[in-house]
Specification:
The protein is α/β, with parallel strands linked by helices. The protein folds into 2 domains: about 5-255, P-loop containing nucleotide triphosphate hydrolases (Rossmann fold), CATH 3.40.50.300; about 265-410, Rossmann fold (3-Layer(aba) Sandwich), CATH 3.40.50. It has helices at about 55-65, 70-80, 95-110, 130-145, 165-170, 180-190, 205-210, 215-220, 240-250, 280-290, 300-315, 330-340, 375-380, 400-410, 420-430, 490-495, and strands at about 25-30, 85-90, 125-130, 155, 175-180, 200, 230-235, 255, 265-275, 295-300, 320, 345-350, 365, 390-395. The strands form 2 sheets. Strands 1-8-2-7-6-3-5-4 form an 8-stranded parallel β-sheet, sandwiched between helices. It is globular and about 65 Å long. The chain binds adenosine monophosphate. The site of adenosine monophosphate has 18 residues, from helix 3.
């Protein structure tokens, strides 16, 4: 594909930390995508052909523009082809979809056929994903990878008419990609039979468990034959995932790419320390001054996503929002328009933090830092710096978010670079356009009525008006989440009041 830089897999074997080893497991792990090998000359350059892929698949990867397999593909494809169970510690963006989809297609190829009879097309591979967007994306990839094989695939997820899905299932598909809730709906309505499934993939298992899908997963497992191959992928490896892996996997091959919690090496970080009330103007300034054509912006609350998208539109920036209160059609449209470059800014809650693959997305902005867990920072910024293409992760951090910033830096084991505020402030004072500064946000205190100065947090510019920390949200309406207390809230809490069944969303 034109413009796509190809990842150079430079693998180095090492043992994964023992805490994520499972009994009977064989561990293969690689360093981050761009970690230099101990001795580059010693590292044989892998190829897709050397991994044992069949000609139809070699043709398709060449057509996709993939010149070399990524590290996860190097490690995962051979064991999956040998029908091993596999536990992959890898994030979306590492090429893991092809890592499991290509060998699955090869394993199913002997049964490929063009018969119109549904009986000749039972579901043989089931791929479960936590979100509808990821399900659609994975099926897109599977469809692309299977184009030279007579294998059918379909995707089922909630929020849209179940009718066409029933029709597709009735006609028969070998590979089914699904979110758990809608899959259960089909099972209950007896529009789906999983008795012939040979391979199960749980993609983004940590996210599925975060979203409260464990009971649904257990019900689905009960509908599957007990003899099958299991592949489990997870970006992180918390205790719940380890427990699930123990139950599910038999003597798995364990594959790890990139350090746990390590953001993509190709992402450059930039922190702007700013009062909350200046964020909107700073964001508009950054979008314009950096000539951003595509920027994914994260906020915490759904209503803030809508509001910020509206405000950006008022500022003359094409923007839309994506979060779980929007209908599936609206979510799909927002994402499509963003991917096609029809809108510049996509404002998202953490629903978009994982899974989405937006080709060559150059900018991710944390309008607000994630407060559920510092690891969400990694997932958010993982939307950029993908497939070997570099990206910028920009965080706008207000005084009340300093603790979250510290937590993130602690997790990353490094301080994130601070951007100088001077250029933005200069421009606000002497705007290049000569039109005068933009009208202040209506919640900004009127000129000359800035609240009395309070001691500023370290790293803040004392010359700027101090903004009280209490109304932490940029809108001033939401209560401050403040530093995290007690156990982390499940990510599902960001997506709604309780973990919703997919079919309910
Ligand atoms: P994934 O992690 O599966 O979401 O993949 C992330 C992106 O990497 C997708 O856009 C894939 O098309 C792309 N990709 C997957 N494998 C390769 C490869 N071997 N070379 C280049 N790009 C790849």
């Amino acid at each position: 594909m034109q413009g796509k830089r190809i990842i150079r897999p430079r693998d180095r074997q090492r043992f994964a930390p023992s805490f994520w080893r499972l009994p009977g497991a064989v561990t293969i792990s690689t360093h981050g995508l761009d970690a230099p090998p101990a001795n580059a000359a010693d590292t044989p350059k892998p190829s897709f052909a050397a991994l044992g892929l069949m000609p139809e698949l070699l043709r398709v990867v060449a057509e996709q523009g993939y010149l070399e397999p990524t590290p996860i593909q190097v490690q995962a494809i051979p064991p999956v082809l040998q029908r091993h169970d596999l536990m992959g510690c890898a994030q979306t963006g590492t090429g893991k979809t092809a890592g499991f989809a290509l060998p699955i297609l090869q394993l199913l190829a002997p049964q490929a056929n063009t018969s119109p009879s549904p009986a000749r097309h039972p579901v043989r591979a089931l791929i479960l994903t936590p979100t509808r967007e990821l399900a659609a994306q994975v099926q897109d990839s599977v469809r692309g990878y299977s184009k030279h094989l007579a294998l059918r695939s379909a995707v089922v997820y909630g929020g849209i008419d179940i009718g066409p899905q029933k029709k597709a299932l009735h006609a028969g598909v070998e590979i089914l990609v699904a979110t758990p809730g809608r899959l259960l709906d089909h099972l209950h309505q007896k529009t789906l039979n999983l008795a012939r499934v040979e391979i199960l993939v749980l993609d983004e298992a940590d996210r599925m468990l975060d979203m409260g899908f464990l009971p649904d997963i257990k019900r689905i497992l009960a509908a599957l034959p007990s003899r099958r191959q299991n592949l489990l992928f997870s970006a992180t490896f918390p205790e719940e995932v380890r427990r699930l892996a123990k139950e599910l996997l038999h003597a798995p091959i364990m594959v790890e790419v990139a350090r746990r919690n390590a953001p993509a090496d190709l992402v450059s970080h930039e922190v702007h320390l700013t009062p909350a009330l200046r964020k909107r103007a700073l964001l508009a300034h950054l979008i314009r001054s950096r000539n951003m054509r595509q920027v994914l912006i994260f906020v915490r609350m759904k209503r803030d996503a809508n509001r910020l998208a509206r405000q950006l539109q008022q500022d003359g920036i094409a923007a839309t929002a994506i979060h779980s209160d929007r209908t599936q059609q609206e979510r799909t449209l927002a994402l499509d328009e963003f991917k096609q470059g029809k809108v510049t800014a996509l404002v998202a809650t953490d629903i978009a933090a994982r899974g989405l693959d937006i080709e060559e997305l150059p900018f991710v902005v944390n309008y607000e830092l994630p407060y559920t867990s510092p690891e969400d920072y990694v997932h958010r910024i993982g939307r950029t710096g993908r497939a070997g293409v570099s990206g910028d992760a920009i965080s706008l951090v207000s005084p009340d978010e300093m603790k979250m910033l510290e937590d993130i830096e602690h997790m990353l084991k490094r301080k994130l670079p601070r951007a100088p505020a001077a250029s933005f402030e200069e421009e606000r004072r002497v705007p290049a356009s000569g039109k005068g500064p933009r009208r202040p946000h209506r919640k900004e205190p009127p000129r000359g009525h800035a609240p009395a100065a309070k001691p500023a947090l370290p790293g803040f510019d004392f010359s700027k008006p101090y903004e009280p920390a209490a109304p932490s949200s940029t809108t001033g309406r939401e209560p401050a989440p403040g530093p995290r207390r007690g156990p982390a809230r499940p990510t599902a809490a960001l997506l709604g009041r309780r973990p919703k069944r997919d079919s309910e969303k």
